[in-house]
UniProtKB/TrEMBL annotation, chains A, B:
A matching Pfam family: SpoU_methylase
Highest taxon in the source lineage: Bacteria
Species in which this protein is naturally found: Mahella australiensis (strain DSM 15567 / CIP 107919 / 50-1 BON)
GO-annotated cellular components: cytoplasm
Name of protein: tRNA/rRNA methyltransferase (SpoU)
Keyword Methyltransferase among UniProt keywords: yes
Organismal lineage: Bacteria, Bacillati, Bacillota, Clostridia, Thermoanaerobacterales
Amino acid sequence: MIISDGNPRIKLVRSLASSHGRKKSGLYFIEGAKLIEEAIKANEDILFIVYSSDFGDSTLLKLIIDRDIDNFSVLPDVFVNIADTATPQGVLAVLKQQQRDWHEIMMLEHCLLLVLDAVQDPGNVGTMIRTADAMGFSAVIAGRGTADQYNPKVLRAAMGSSFHMPVYNDVPLPEALTELMERVSVLAAVPRGGIDIDEAPLADRTAIIIGNEARGISDKVMDNAAYTVSIGMPGRAESLNASIAAGIIMYEISRRWYSTN
Amino acid sequence: MIISDGNPRIKLVRSLASSHGRKKSGLYFIEGAKLIEEAIKANEDILFIVYSSDFGDSTLLKLIIDRDIDNFSVLPDVFVNIADTATPQGVLAVLKQQQRDWHEIMMLEHCLLLVLDAVQDPGNVGTMIRTADAMGFSAVIAGRGTADQYNPKVLRAAMGSSFHMPVYNDVPLPEALTELMERVSVLAAVPRGGIDIDEAPLADRTAIIIGNEARGISDKVMDNAAYTVSIGMPGRAESLNASIAAGIIMYEISRRWYSTN
């Protein structure tokens, strides 16, 4: 059992709380029994698991031993210091990040793509990844300035979806979309004034861009959209919460796309 | 200027942070210039406004004086102690709660109703009120056990929608739905196995029940639903975030209902 905060592996976990630390090492961590179980089942590349000495979920511990995953326990006080959550569940895993090249997307014959242009709130990004996964989207293209996929808050909101939804990170959107546009019908979501989302033209390969919570989609990214689309709102509220708007748009695209594809 | 924490009005504001204090006085408070401006424009019954002596929004202060609303300033240290937000904007208003009788609903000829069965998270309740407002719903029926409409977190997530969307609080759902069912088509949202929401039968008067985040809709409430409905999910995620699911369901009902009503 590790009892010191100064242990190199404890220091490593702590460094993964920052975006800089994650980028430097190519690693990240997840917390909680449910998420770790999903990561194991999805055959994610787990380096090691840390649990608090008072952690009591024997099903997970058995799974860790069965799969021969490197693991060690620490004192509860040490665990609290490395956990990201306010009331930690007492177990976390350090994983290798997936390295993906967005050019892969060009190979897809049929696809629904979610493109995030500097969506900043980690909860929103995580929720959008989870919704995209539920709605049968093929991939998420996270443009530069979007909250990091491996941010603990993004991972929590995404639930297990981070393990089955390919997310392309830090993509230079104007360049990528210029290439994509040749093969993909690119729609851009705007709060009002676009084509009603239930009437927007869909193609075998369709992408939808969601913009920053405050500023919307940047001009350079917007230049690469074929159509702007909006949600019809018969009521009085001026706008929707960003995740809700993205959720409704993905639902409507998915509903229509899957009825013909 | 009030400089003491012990001032009766300061004590009153502090009591409104708790559900018990709000129930006892029939009052509540809202924070921030934007929300207060919307409350003034919606002619809400504002008892008084408290601002921090370093508050600098002269447009709002002018509006407060123009409308002859009772107001006073406090030292910044006093303000921080009564504010609900971590980084307060320096202004809050105390308002009278709306007293509504859910039997009013029986008078509506055409209506879309959102029914909340013990939805617990204040952020979810506020977001659902905001979405219902955007989607042209007529009213929200908040069953017992649902987060209080006047909880500061609910009010923040609802944005200005609390001022135009009638919300019926603390409604005894089984009894109310038994009466409503005679005039309203009641649908119940379930994670899977219900009729696809884009095919569910809609009537001139339609209500949709959303259940508790963990337990779903209680049996006694479910007994009063004519149909269960679900969102078609072609993807892999097992479920959606509760607010997202409610948002998609309200969107789909609204889209179809407004095309015929």
